[in-house]
Write a structure and sequence with these properties.
By secondary structure, this protein is mainly alpha-helical. The chain is built from twelve helices and ten strands.
Length: 405
């Protein structure tokens, strides 16, 4: 899935996605904003969407926990890291064989969540409201009872969706997701395009020499080759067509990410295999033996605001951007640094033996790796790459040359 066009060439396309003035939120989005910050929608009464998707950290967690606590008593843990909500408006619907706009190979792509199982932002939001280790409402009726018990919310629902909205609890439940989706789609804080890179792409600022070197490494298909998956060029777009500047092609891949020993997998049978289960069931190998090729695949996240994250990958196994880069360039060179012995075999310790063949080994930087090989970039070039990735953080002020913390 190689992007054939450099970041620098396509940078100018970002300008179309930057709006100078935000339009007022619709009534539905205003209700969604209220719901997003409301802890009263959770079974515990202590958790809102913003508890895990902190607007102060680009709608990602502000702590360094690999998974966030939740549940009726805030004492349950899930098994996947919480992603940022910024720029999810561009993610296309899931397609198991989506054509890559750059003309390279097709494959599974799109969908909300790490496994792409949610067909829309609204669907993803509703899952969180009823998941036992998240906001933990027992069912959709339980959530709507909470809403109806609050005169302010009940009035807002009737004003937004009509006086009969509570006649069918399922309709009111779906309306909840619709309101949250409207807030995320309409509020510019979820897709501000205010990074240094965005100002650079519009010709308003220059990158430093180190950032420029990092961008060259990012684009170099014979070295780091970040651009292959985290393209700033053409990618599939929500609603069809193409988008640009997202620093993700939205495809799902198996990178052989190390197991995180801090996560308890007993409730799900010991392993998280992403696209083929356990949370996603339609592509399970039990339904078709061919589905085994999907096992171990997880979504390719946007790199926008990645430098502000505290944990990385679907299981939060890494806590620094530098570790992520070094994993990419040395995964199969120094496997003992990353993996622990499992099932009698060292590499890819979070996958059963029959799934390890799914791990991406063909593309750079993985194609150049074997024990004893030399990494495709040197230590000082890792610093350059980190410097470039920091330019993707929103909140840059071109007057001061600083990015808001």
């Amino acid at each position: 899935m190689r992007s054939r066009t450099s970041v620098a060439f396509l940078a100018g396309l970002l300008a179309a996605g930057i709006t100078a003035h935000a339009a007022p939120l619709s009534p539905k989005a205003q209700l969604g904003r209220k719901l997003f910050f409301d802890t009263g929608l959770s079974a515990s009464g202590r958790q809102s969407c913003a508890s895990c998707h902190d607007p102060a950290n680009h709608y990602a967690p502000s702590n360094d926990l690999p998974v966030q606590p939740g549940g009726a008593h805030m004492d349950r843990l899930g098994f996947r890291a919480t992603p940022s909500l910024t720029y999810i408006d561009q993610i296309p619907r899931f397609n198991a064989d989506l054509e890559n706009p750059d003309g390279s190979a097709s494959g599974p792509a799109g969908g909300q969540d790490w496994d792409g199982r949610s067909s829309s932002i609204a669907d993803q939001a509703l899952r969180v409201l009823t998941t036992r280790y998240e906001m933990a409402n027992r069912n959709e009726d339980a959530l709507i009872r909470r809403v109806r018990a609050r005169p302010d919310l009940a009035t807002a629902y009737r004003q937004t969706f009509g006086p009969d909205i509570f006649d069918e609890p399922h309709d009111a439940f779906r309306a909840t997701g619709s309101a949250l989706e409207a807030f995320i789609l309409e509020d510019p804080s979820f897709h501000p395009y205010t990074s240094k890179y965005d100002f650079y792409s519009r010709g308003l600022v220059s990158l430093t020499p180190q950032e420029t070197r990092g961008m060259a490494i990012f684009n170099d298909t014979e070295r780091a080759n970040c651009v292959q998956c985290h393209t700033a060029g053409l990618g599939p777009a929500r609603g069809g067509g193409t988008t640009s500047g997202q620093f993700s092609d939205f495809f799902l891949r198996n990178l052989g990410t190390p197991r995180n020993p801090a996560i308890d997998y007993r409730d799900i049978g010991g392993r998280d295999l992403g696209l083929c289960g356990p949370l996603r069931t339609d592509l399970s190998p039990t339904k078709s033996a061919n589905n085994i090729r999907y096992c171990g695949m997880f979504a390719t996240s946007t790199l926008r605001n990645t430098a502000t994250r505290k944990v990385f990958f679907h299981n939060g196994v890494f806590r620094s951007l530098r570790d992520v880069i070094e994993f990419y360039i040395t995964r199969d060179i120094t496997p003992r640094r990353w993996f622990h012995a499992h099932d009698g075999d060292l590499p890819y310790d979070d996958l059963p033996p029959d799934i390890r063949r799914n791990v991406d080994r063909a593309d750079m930087p993985f194609a150049a790796q074997h024990p004893g090989a030399r990494p495709v970039i040197a230590e000082h070039q890792v610093d350059d790459l980190v410097a470039f990735l920091k330019t993707l953080t929103d909140g840059y002020d071109p007057k001061t040359g600083k990015t808001a913390p």
